[in-house]
Specification:
Helices cover about 35% and strands about 25% of the residues. α2 runs antiparallel to α4 and α3 packs across α4. The chain has one domain: 4-Layer Sandwich (Phosphatase 2c, domain 1). The strands form two sheets. A six-stranded antiparallel β-sheet has the order 1-2-12-11-8-9. Strands 3, 4, 5, 6, 7 and 10 form a six-stranded antiparallel β-sheet that branches. A hairpin with a 4-residue loop joins β6 and β7. It is α+β, with helices and mostly antiparallel strands and about 300 residues long. The longest helix has 27 residues. It contains eight helices and twelve strands.
Length: about 300
């Protein structure tokens, strides 16, 4: 089963190696270890950028931007080198096939309906749960079959836009979804992490590290995504991002970039560059989506 909820609601110090890497990268062209995806659809424009950063040798993040810009996915793999990358790419491959906007109309008609929700949203909630279950099953079985001493896994955050003015979002782990509306930046997801739980509990005792997540795709046989829905409006901007951005760039700086009157690709590239300029300690991935059609 799954719960449906609409969640409304510093720069890190650099060691000498990271400072040297930051200085050497200043003024250079974007990294060659960078993936860019663009889409223009009937509802929105979207751009995704994924970069290896300045410290890691491999990029374990993955992004997916459907050609219609109706389905956007981002994952942050963990488990080291190829295992984390395999987990993130497998997860996005499975979910993108199961939530393909080109073929979803028939699937929605066969989905389980949840009372109290618009029909399309209710049907999509059921399909999201199935898609996440399938992705988790695939990664979990791969972990088991490879006899890994430490199971790999991945976060995931997704956004699905519907023609009727609604959208649905879901996540597992600490990859986030933000919305900028009329100058206000709002996080629509809450991290599945020890640190977030510590804050929610009133900050008792010692502060836990931010890297300890409490849910992920792959390490365990079952996982439950957090699912929410909302109505979109024209000129809303949505940001999906990995912690490679939010651990390096303050939310106020993120807000300024999203509010700039620029193309979504330029905004996405600038956010990634800011994470690299702040040290680029981790892979950094973002997807920026601007609603173009009146809601």
């Amino acid at each position: 089963m799954f719960g449906i909820s609409l969640i409304t609601s510093p720069n890190c110090g650099l060691d000498p190696m990271q400072e040297k890497a930051r200085q050497e990268s200043a003024g250079k062209e974007p990294s060659s270890d960078r993936i860019t995806m663009l889409a223009q659809g009937s509802l929105a424009m979207a751009a995704g950028v994924s970069d290896v950063g300045l410290v890691r040798r491999n990029n374990e993040d993955a992004i997916f931007v459907h050609h219609s810009a109706k389905l956007l996915l981002l994952a942050d793999g963990m488990g080291g080198h190829q295992h984390g990358a395999q987990a993130s790419h497998t997860t996005l491959d499975v979910i993108s096939r199961r939530l393909n906007p080109d073929t979803l109309v028939q699937d929605l008609g066969e989905a389980t309906i949840v009372l109290g929700l618009p029909m399309e949203v209710a049907g999509l909630c059921s399909l999201v749960q199935r898609a996440v279950d399938a992705a988790n099953d695939e990664v979990y079985k791969s972990n088991f079959n490879q006899h890994l001493s430490k199971y790999s896994g991945t976060t995931v955050v997704g956004l699905f836009l519907l023609e009727n003015g609604y959208l649905l979002f879901f996540h597992v782990g600490d990859s986030r979804l933000y919305r900028l509306r009329k100058g206000r930046l709002q996080a629509l997801t809450t991290d599945h992490s020890m640190h977030a739980e510590w804050i929610a509990a009133g900050r008792p005792g010692l502060e836990p590290g931010k890297q300890a997540i409490t849910r992920a795709i792959g390490p365990h046989e079952f996982v439950e995504p957090a699912v929410g829905w909302d109505k979109w409006r024209k000129n809303d901007i949505y940001l999906l991002c990995s912690d490679g951005l939010t651990d390096m760039v303050p939310e106020e700086d993120i807000k300024k970039d999203l509010a700039a009157k620029k193309q979504v690709e330029s905004i996405a590239q600038e956010l990634v560059e800011k994470a690299r300029e702040a040290g680029g300690k981790d892979n950094v991935s973002v997807i920026v989506c601007r609603m173009e059609k009146p809601g």
